[in-house]
Write the structure tokens for this entry.
Amino acid sequence: MNTQMIIIIGAIMMTLIAVMNWIRLKSKHNDFADLLVDQIEHDLELRKTLAMGLYLRFRKEDQNDTYSSTFLKEDPVSFEHFVADIIEAKYGGEMFVSKASGDYGVDFEDRREEGLYLGQVKCEKTDVGFEAIALVHSNMQKWGAVGGYVITTADFTEKAKKYADGLNIELINGVEFVTLWLETMESDTAYIKQLNPTDT
């Protein structure tokens, strides 16, 4: 065998080894990602921690905040867009996020085939009371909406849950919102894999 042929065979072998290693690593990465998502979906404490992380990421600035430089920090108004993107990914429709001020308690509008849905988001550490639900319900009546949402990083008081009963307003607490977020990430991943079936 001449030197040129040995070099060509060597190059082919190196390429094959590199491709096989890449496939093996990619497979391990996907297995790890699937395992991580599965763990988060089944671990309530982990979802509570992620909900608190969202609160820390999007909350309003506090003058006495010693952790502001420690965490990824975004403008609190960005939380409305973040939530609206997830609701749109989950339920579809045409999404519109309201201006930060003068929204009368409506942070987003989702126009779907079955009608208009209104939503309010609350980046809170403490449980949300009935007032947010009352605002959404009032606007639903005014605008002829078929449904509504109040979404928080925390939870809802018992009074708020009772108040919402029968109003066609879905209350989504922090843990439920994290679950919804994970579901939309899973569907995005599945969609991307359909577009590129070799990416497994």
